[in-house]
Each structure stands twice: as C-alpha cells, then as structure tokens.
Design a protein that fits this description.
Elements lengths: L1 H16 L17 E4 L3 E2 L6 H16 L3 E2 L7 E17 L7 E16 L5 E14 L4 H26 L3
Parallel strand pairs: 1-3, 1-4, 2-4
Antiparallel strand pairs: 4-5, 5-6
Helix pairs in contact: 2-3
C-alpha cells in the first residue's frame, strides 16, 4: 500500500514538473511561419573579417534554431541588421615567469542589433549585445585571435538568436 502512494506521488510530481514545458518556439510564433533576412553586419572596428564571421554565424544559428525560416532569396518578413561597434582585448592571465607578459586574453565585441517587421516597419528589437571568448596566446597573438574569431562570432550569434527567437515582442 505504501509503495502505491509513493508511485502516485512520483507520477504527480513528474506531471506537474513538466506542465510548463512545450515544444517549439517560446515566443508564441509557429516554427518556420515567418522568414528572417540577415543583412551583412557592418564592422566599424579595425579587426578584419569580423563582420563576415558574425553574419555567417548568425545565419547558421537562426537556421539551426528553426523558429524562423531563413530568407536567402529576396526579402524576409523580418529584417535583421547589425553594427559591430567595438572590439576589446583584455589581459586576464600572465606568464608565471614574467608578471608583465599576458598569456591569456578575453576578447569581446559590442554589437548593436536591430530587427524590424518589413511590412509594418515596426522595430522588434533594438539592443546592444556584448559577446566574448577567451584566447590563450601561444607564440603569436594575431594567429590566436584569428582562431578565436569564430568562437566570438558564435557567442554573439547565440545571444542574437536568443533575443530574436525567445524575446517577447
């Protein structure tokens, strides 16, 4: 008799615990119902090819998410634009043999992202996001930063995707 009570309590607990969970987009939209056009990001920093990396990463992230259909030919229902405003590099770790020479850096960028409905012109998103990643400097800082660029772009793309797909407009 006692085990039945425990089983019933476990079943009720699992049922209530998963009551808020649902499949698909959380912003009330139907998956793939609207299309989104990602314009190339404008890079206002001195870091080369950062805009291209971010544009590609954002398109891939939105396509994998599936909330919106990626518009590859023509205009989409929503147009996403962005400007990379700043690129920062901060030393966070130093060589154990030399307290002045950095060994690890945190690189980051600030991206002003705007999304608007093409039909109505209504601004759906207007926000600056901050993305970062860590870089371990081996023998060459430039090569290390170049290798970390896709990780930085991916972090920014995931944050943009979260705002677009899960945001409540």
């Amino acid at each position: 008799m006692r085990w039945r009570t425990y089983c019933l309590a476990a079943v009720l607990g699992l049922t209530w615990g998963c009551a808020a969970y649902h499949l698909g987009p959380v912003n009330g939209a139907t998956a793939g119902d609207q299309s989104i056009e990602v314009a190339p990001f404008n890079n206002q920093t001195l870091q080369p090819r950062l805009g291209d990396s971010l544009t590609q990463a954002t398109r891939e992230c939105l396509q994998q998410d599936g909330t919106y259909h990626l518009a590859t030919h023509g205009e989409g229902d929503i147009r996403l634009t962005g400007v990379i405003q700043a690129y920062q590099r901060s030393a966070i770790g130093y060589l154990s043999t030399d307290a002045v020479t950095p060994e690890d850096f945190q690189v980051g960028m600030d991206v002003h992202v705007t999304a608007y409905d093409v039909d109505t012109g209504k601004v759906l998103l207007d926000k600056v996001i901050h993305a970062f990643t860590l870089v371990h400097v081996g023998s060459d800082l430039a090569s290390a930063e170049r290798q970390a660029m896709p990780l930085l772009a991916e972090d920014a793309a995931q944050k943009i995707n979260e705002l677009i797909s899960e945001g409540s407009w």
